[in-house]
Each structure stands twice: as C-alpha cells, then as structure tokens.
Amino acid sequence: MTAFPHDFLWGGAIAANQVEGAFNLDGKGLSTSDMLPNGILSPHQTREARTPGIKDLAIDFYNRYPEDIALFNEMGFNCLRLSIAWTRIFPNGDEETPNEAGLAYYDQIFDELAKYNMTPFVTLSHYEMPYALVENYGGWGDRRLIAFFERYVTTVFERYKDKVKLWLTFNEINMSLHAPFTGVGLQEDASEQAIYQAIHHQLVANAIAVNACKRIIPDSKIGNMLLGAINYPYTCNPDDVIAAMHENNKWLFFGDVQTRGKYPGYMLRYFRENGITIAMEDGDLDTIAQASVDFISFSYYASGCASADPKQKEVGNIVDSVPNPYLEKSQWGWLIDPKGLRILLNFLHDRYQKPLFIVENGLGAIDELDENGEIQDDYRIQYMNDHLVQAREAMLDGVELMGFTSWGPIDLVANSTAEMKKRYGFIYVDRHDDGTGTLIRKRKKSFYWYQDVINSRGQSLTVK
C-alpha cells in the first residue's frame, strides 16, 4: 500500500478559542480560555482582573471563515475538525434557553463547509467552558455541571443533526491532570482529590453525550480525544519499565473508561494508595458502562521517556518527562519522534480494537519571510512527511485509521503559550504577538506540499 484509502479523511484541525476572536460579540459569554490571555498557566481570578489578550481577536476566523475554508478546499481537504464555543450557545452555561445568534453562526460555518463537500468534525468542548460556571459553581468539581453540559450537547445535536455526523466530546481530556483550569475549571494548585472528582463528573458527562448523540443522530459517529503522550522506558531496567507503565496509565485511564466503560483496576489501586475517594451517585457507573465511544481520536506531537530516578526528569512545555538522547527537539523543546506515531497507533489499536483518528499532529515553529516574501518551511514539510509515512506503516500493520487532521492548518494562537510566533499552519497569517499585522493570509511552501499529498492520497510522500 502506497496510497491511503479512497475514503480516508484528510484535513486540518482548529479550535474556536484559538481562531475565532469575537470573544464578546453576538451574545458570547466569557470562557475560561478568555481568562487566559497569556497561556494556560496563570488564570485570572476575577472578570475585573482580566486584561485584553491576543485571543480576543485571534485570527478573526469569526468573520473571515469563508476565505479560510476556501483555502482549505484549495488544499484538498475533505474534512475540517473544529470546535463549537460552549459560550456562544450558553454564555453563562446555566441558562435554560440557548443563544440563537451563536447557533446561527455555526449554521453558517457548516453550510460553508457543505458548499465544498467538506465533512465537519466537531469537538464539543475544546479547552474552554463558560467562566461563569467556574465563578458560580467551582467548575467541574460541582456535579451540577453534568446537567448543564447535557443541555448544551443536546441543543447542538438537535440543531445540527442534519449537518454534522462526526463528533468528539472533550479535547485532550487527560490534560486536566496537567492543566486543571483549562480542563475542568479548577485552580492550578487544586488537589489530586479535587481534580479526579471533577474528572469523574466529566466522564459521566462524556457518557451522557455519547448516548445522546447516538439517540438524536443515529447515523453519527462520536469519539473521545486523548493527548497521545506515549512514554518509553528510559532504560531496560525493570524499574524504568514499570515507571513507563505508570506514566502511560495516567492518560490511558481516560481511554479505558470511555471505551471499556469502567474504572480500571490500576486506577482503583492508585486511588486507594493516595487517599483519593471519588464520590459517585447511583447509576454513574451504569451510565459509563453503556456509552462506549465509536472510535478513538488523539493528538500526537512527541513521545517521552520515564525513569524510576526522579532526577532524570526534565521540565517540559506542559508535561514533564525524561529527555530521549536518540531524538531531536523542536524549537519549543518537543521531542520529534515520527516512529513514535506508528508505535502509538499499534498500541492503541491493539488495546481498544476500535478505529483510530489522528486529529492533531504538526510542528510549531518560527516562520520567517524570505527576500521574496515567501515562507520556505521545509522543516515543517519534513516533519509532516515523516509522520504520515509512519501512519501509513501502521495501516500496513493492520491498524484501522479513519483520517488525519493536521493541527493548525492555518496559523493560530498557540494554546500553551498564547503566541502567534509559534506557527503551525500551511497558511501564514500576518498577525504578531504584539497585536500588529494585517491578518492577510499567505500560502506557505507546505501548502502546496500538503495539497500534493492529499491529491495523490499519500503517494507523494518520501521515504528515507
């Protein structure tokens, strides 16, 4: 097999809070992301303390989506992964009635995608939630958020049931362990007890959403989404192998619950040994047990290593891990490991026996205009090429892979750092960290490369 299947979904992935802007227009409420103008590590405590940030305008996709979708179509996309901003539909999260202006906006987006026969692939909660739910309820630590989320997802399923057939619940749900404000609306110093309690509420809400989607849109598919943070043992010392097993279990726990429908034994042991008691209501475990997702989706940017020696660990961008001496790093210190993608695909397929979808993969880099005003991003082409080659290898191994949506097909505001200079796109956006720029879009060299990859169904990929 040198060509990907004819029904393979090719495209890109964006998030509302990183592209739309228009943070306070047409009835939209403040989200947790709006309270993080400088990235995910320093949430403001009050609305009054909020300062303007680059996300307030982002790349103005809110107004420029027809131009951007046309560019995606020019590249050959047959799929666009995007998210709905919960705060456009329910500005404070606990209203009885949705905001019609927000619903109408996404109708326009889906209609625009339909013009090009581009499949919308919608994430229900992508690193944001109504900030009022944090202020008034304490985020996902309060069980009442389950009902608020159910109202939200039921509303959008009913509204878009004829337009959207492919859904995800929570973006990188396992990141709540590393960034609790972003993931579950808790402060960064929240205890493990509080974080896992909030995660339980989110897992119940996930199950309710899965069942609601299948009931309201019978011909739909709905999946979960993990940050695919696979860890290798640093050495063949059995202690390092066990350390890697523990590190991997921290994120596999979420996939196990969302796929197998129960809390795994290794997690129950962790709770016992760390004094964590999860308050559950009757029926919670039954709800989870009856809501296995249709497919597993994940992001993959880098692998890591795990060691039993705590002195080996290195502080990372978001997740700490042990450096791998066999791999190079990106400009932001992320290990570049294309073969890790093949390993991860085989690992997940063997574990869950469900279709997989790579919904984020890409290289954040500083792009410079050359003397002709062009961007020769061969480093991005090499990165993407090598990862797609390994995805094809995994399919030859027998992995069932539904599609590939690159992260940030157009430059957007990086979530972890709230920067524009950390660019992922095949399309350059003239916007800078200081807020200057014309917002003009420009095709990079990688734009034409990805166009060729899609048009050739991957046969243009080069193998070292």
UniProtKB/TrEMBL annotation:
Q: Which residues form the active site?
A: 360 (nucleophile)
* Cellular component annotations (GO), alphabetically ordered: cytosol
Arranged from A to Z, the UniProt key words for this protein are: Glycosidase, Hydrolase
What is the superkingdom listed in this entry's lineage? Bacteria
Record-level Gene Ontology MF annotations: beta-glucosidase activity
Q: Kindly indicate whether the keyword Iron belongs to this entry.
A: no
Which InterPro entries does this entry report, sorted A to Z? GH (IPR017853), GH_1_N_CS (IPR033132), Glyco_hydro_1 (IPR001360), Glyco_hydro_1_AS (IPR018120)
* PROSITE patterns the record matches: GLYCOSYL_HYDROL_F1_1, GLYCOSYL_HYDROL_F1_2
One GO biological-process annotation of the entry reads:
carbohydrate catabolic process
Q: Name one Pfam family in it.
A: Glyco_hydro_1
Name the protein family: Belongs to the glycosyl hydrolase 1 family.
Name the record gives this protein: 6-phospho-beta-glucosidase
Upper classification of the organism: Bacteria, Pseudomonadati, Pseudomonadota, Gammaproteobacteria, Vibrionales
